[in-house]
Design a protein that fits this description.
single chain, alpha/beta, 32 helices, globular, binds adenosine-5'-triphosphate, helicase, P-loop_NTPase, hydrolase, helicase activity
């Protein structure tokens, strides 16, 4: 079989999936059973049997995964410009909006970052509810996002997420309407809009549906278990034209907070009667001892996952479980253990450390610095989220979209003598103008606006369409104000502009460049580069999906962390936490090292355990929560034979 020749051996189940000929299929498999391999081989198989690559669309959860799959298919086909299309749902929809000759609405828009969304909600709140009394901007933003991603009724989501505010329903709706109106005025599109706008059009209009559906013969979807109802509403109408081939694992669904819906997996066949469910059972990644522990973790869940992974590669080391006095001792031990392994000849890059949150990573980073362990951190704050870069980019933003109110606010308030009040007044005027030329004219007549502020924008406008040159000019002309604003660490920050310039080298459109960084193109490039270095991979578990290493450490497996305090009291959240831990432990190929530390004195004073639930519902005491944390601790009933203490 051609794809097998390209992609390496396939077992009979994988081969059946790769060459499946009836209509739609969902391949369900546990971790390490070759789902990614099957997607790559399926694409190679389709191409080798004559399907034009541009008629195949591959949808993945991250841009990195999309680019890796495309690369692997290209490698398999020995053709590096094969023309296969791979994207996340967001980048796919953004391309549809921008490249449809206006069929899906205006094509020139600025994609908002979450920061921008929060700022806009804050302004809407100030306009609609000046005396307060409503949820904070982040809560309203998340509420609205959940409504759109789950396609549930607003009142239903409000009652579940923010029960205390049900009485203020109409006020919250007014804030959201104000936010929507402002977004329209400013030419903004938020993350959810990208999907929502496309979905609404194809839902309502047969012409739009056909226009999109006719572009594809095959749509291949990775990580189906993490798709949400909005994403399904985009896929289902296209099945009239294209064949859907999805892979997923219900035990690895960890994006419930983004509205991921099990139904997309569990109801697949009911929703698409001309479809088949295929299952892959053999795990090629881990040793049986690692799988025994993983199987046990799922077997004690109240949900019946029915996971019983069998290792093709047989037996190996029993997972280790180490307990330390505190988090620092734990982190130092991990660093020392890595140094020991490296000294014995194992490359750094054979190791991965999987943490729960960015904050958890900090203590590990400190220990790595102390013991000089080289590492790449896969969830670090991208450069583009830092203040000085955002400041420079704000100048480019307003040149690209003169109705970008938040861009104006950031840019104007950078300059001495321009306060919030003036900036608000001026940016309101700017978004009324017909173009950036008219804005510059008006700015020149404003007494409070420094000349240098206008000169930066004029200089950007005068340049040919090269985004990297624009960044260079803007950062050079803004050096004095930035140096003053970031005087404490300017010596470090000043070097970042070169990196951003390099990233922008191939771009001729500011909007396209800004959008790519909002949608994580930049992070994907960094992740890819970092994989080439010999370094330990330090990563959040959410960023580790699809990855594997010979030796994996899962630290901070302490009471109150798995499940985390915030999940207690909500059975769905606790189960999602279990799946997060499942993803972590199933990344290990040969050795799994679990570590934890004893609760600190502070935590031991039971009355001082965080009392979020108590605050919100007035029901539970801190003591109750401490007891629940102990009772629900995932390792509480861990059979001692599954680990080496
Ligand atoms: N038939 C096979 N023969 C040999 N190795 C295989 C086979 N199928 C998969 N593998 C190997 O097993 C490992 C896991 O495969 P892959 O990453 O495709 O699994 P997955 O199901 O996508 O895992 P996860 O869901 O955990 O990300 C890879 O190293 C892959 O090369």
């Amino acid at each position: 079989m051609a794809s097998e020749a390209y992609c390496g051996p396939l077992n009979p189940g994988q081969l059946e999936a790769v060459t499946f000929e009836k209509k739609h299929a969902l391949v369900l498999a546990g971790p390490g059973c070759g789902k990614t391999k099957v997607i790559v081989a399926r694409a190679a198989h389709l191409i080798s049997t004559g399907v034009p690559p541009e008629r195949i669309l591959i949808l993945t959860f991250t841009r990195l995964a999309a680019s890796e799959i495309i690369e692997r298919v290209e490698l398999a086909m020995r053709d590096s410009h094969i023309g296969l299309r791979g994207a996340t749902f967001h980048t796919w929809c953004s391309t549809i909006l921008r490249n449809s000759q206006g069929l899906f609405g205006p094509m020139d828009f600025t994609v908002m970052q979450r920061d921008d969304q929060l700022q806009l909600f804050k302004m809407s709140l100030a306009r609609q509810a000046p005396k307060g009394g409503l949820p904070c901007p982040a809560s309203i933003c998340d509420l609205y996002s959940e409504v759109r991603n789950t396609l549930k009724k607003f009142d239903q989501v409000l009652a579940r997420r923010l029960p205390r505010f049900v009485g203020q329903r109409d006020d919250i709706v007014a804030v959201i309407q104000d936010y929507e109106e402002r977004k329209r005025q400013c030419n903004y599109v938020d993350f959810d809009d990208l999907l929502f706008k496309v979905m609404r059009k194809i839902e309502k209009s047969p012409e739009h549906r056909a226009w999109l559906g006719l572009q594809y013969d095959y749509i291949l979807v990775d990580e189906m278990q993490d798709t949400n109802p909005l994403q399904w509403a985009l896929l289902q109408p296209l099945t009239e034209w294209a064949t859907l081939f999805c892979v997923g694992d219900d035990a690895q669904s960890i994006y419930g907070f983004r509205g991921a819906d099990f139904q997309n997996v569990h109801c697949f066949q009911k929703r698409l009667p001309d479809s088949a469910i295929l299952r892959l059972q053999q795990n090629y990644r881990s040793t049986q001892e690692i799988l025994d522990l993983s199987n046990w973790l799922m077997s004690v869940s109240p949900i019946h996952y029915g996971k019983n992974l069998r290792a093709v590669c047989g037996s190996g080391h029993v997972p280790e479980l180490h307990t330390f006095n505190d988090a620092q001792e734990e982190a130092f031990w991990i660093a020392k253990d890595l140094v020991r392994r490296h000294k014995s000849g194992v490359p750094w890059q054979s190791h991965m450390v999987l943490v729960r949150t960015r904050l958890d990573a900090e203590i590990i980073k400190e220990a790595f610095a102390e013991y000089k362990v080289p590492f790449v951190y896969l969830s670090s704050t991208p450069l583009f989220e830092t203040g000085h870069i955002k400041d420079v980019l704000s100048a480019l933003r307003v040149v690209a979209n003169h109705r970008d109110e938040l861009g104006w606010m950031r840019y104007l308030t950078l300059w001495a003598g321009v306060g919030e009040v003036t900036a608000t007044k001026v940016s309101n005027q700017m978004i009324e103008q017909s173009n950036i030329g008219a804005c510059l004219e008006l700015l020149s007549s404003e007494k409070k606006i420094p000349k240098a502020l206008i000169e930066v924008l004029q200089a950007i406008l005068a340049l040919p369409k090269q985004v990297s040159a624009m960044i260079k000019t803007a950062s050079t002309l803004m050096t004095e104000i930035l140096k003053e604003k970031y005087k404490d660490d300017w010596h470090v920050r000043q070097h970042d502009f070169n990196t951003v310039q390099m990233t922008a080298e191939s771009y001729v459109s500011i909007l396209a460049f800004l959008e790519d960084y909002v949608l994580e193109q930049y992070r994907a490039a960094v992740d890819k580069k970092s994989k080439l270095r010999d370094a330990v991979c330090l990563t959040t578990i959410h960023s580790a999906k699809g990855s594997e290493r010979n030796v994996c450490y899962v630290p901070q497996l302490s009471v109150g962390r798995y499940p985390s305090k915030s999940a207690i009291g909500d059975a769905d959240s606790v189960e999602e936490e279990r799946r997060v831990l499942y993803v972590a432990v199933t990344r290990a190929k040969k050795e799994l090292i679990l570590t934890r530390h004893l609760p600190s004195d502070w935590e031991l004073q039971k009355g001082r355990w965080p009392t979020k639930t108590k605050v919100e519902n007035g029901e539970q005491s801190g003591l109750d929560i401490a007891t629940q944390l102990h009772d629900s601790y995932f390792l509480k009933t861990l059979p001692s034979c599954l680990v080496k203490l």
